[in-house]
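Researcher: Let's run the pair from yesterday's discussion. Sequence first, then tokens, for each.
Model: Starting with the first of the pair.
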Amino acid sequence: MMGDMTSPAAARRLISSGSEFETTYSYSRAVVVGPHVMLSGTTGYDYATSTLAAGAEEQTKQLFRNAAAAFAKAGADLADVVRVRMYIAKTGDYEAVMGVFAATFRGIDPACTTVQAGLFDPDILVEMDMDAILDARA
């Protein structure tokens, strides 16, 4: 029944990666509501070393390590991803990014949108946000 005020609201849980950006700009790396996990835009920045790899392929690999770490804190993993929105700064990096994407998601095959976009830092070549549903494995 729509608007049923007697059913409890799903708990909202915030996931942090410990990034200074999350604290400074007041957002979460991921938000969990019920079985849904929404991952914020994630880049290939390596928070442990405070570095960013020079190439799109290496940035994409680190991006997926960052995403996997956030999903793990939420009780999920990359196999639970059902939707990806991808932003690539340079169209010439498409094949490098998609090669890593394909290796990561083969057999999972989430819905995906890819956009060429200017990103906030010219050194960042790729950014993705993802949605997962807990235990929604292919």
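Model: Moving on to the second of the pair.
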Amino acid sequence: MKRIAVVEDEPLMREELADLLKRAGYEVEEISSFDDAAGVLLQLPLDLVILDLNLPGTNGFFICRELKQKSSVPVLVLTSRDQMRDELSALKLGADEYLTKPCRKERLLARVSNVLKRYEGRRNLLEGPGFLLDRQTYTLYVNGSSAILPKNQGKLLETLISHADEIVSKEELCVCLWGTSEFIDENALQVNLTRLKKTMAGLQMELRISPVRGLGYRLETEVKPYET
């Protein structure tokens, strides 16, 4: 059974949406607290997020961006904001559908079904600017090309992508490679990172791995000729 999260601050609307989806055969997770909605959603095994944009304390644009940077879950925006600039902003952030309220139930269910079909089999994919990473096979798809990464390179890239633009410590990278950080072999870690950098450069990815002195590494958008 497909699991859908409804992120909506209006209780009656949230309950109506949840009831509609349940009657259509979906499992529903209702999100009614929004301080860390993105963090909560990222911890849930979801097939789709239905997201309002006008939320107390935050907004749907921020949540959409966080979800799309750190996961491959599809996002359907359902909002009363009917301005073209809002729709374009949401789509640029990665939203898969944009519907305005009020919306006919049949139309909403049809869009939900279409998005789920498009994402069938893609739950293992991590998305980023211009690339996809299959977490099962560590196949990296970039600009129409693909490469199967060695296991260690795949683990490192998956960990860095999952943290978006956050800093990942050396300890965390060691855990992802060897399951422990008790005995950090910085030379071995550096060798694996250097190999991954060369692979990314060869595929002309828009991201680069940048060291943060004393803290670790993070992915950044490429702004100058790639250096390995």
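Researcher: Give me one sentence on the second I can quote.
Model: Confidence is low (pLDDT under 50) at residues 224-228.
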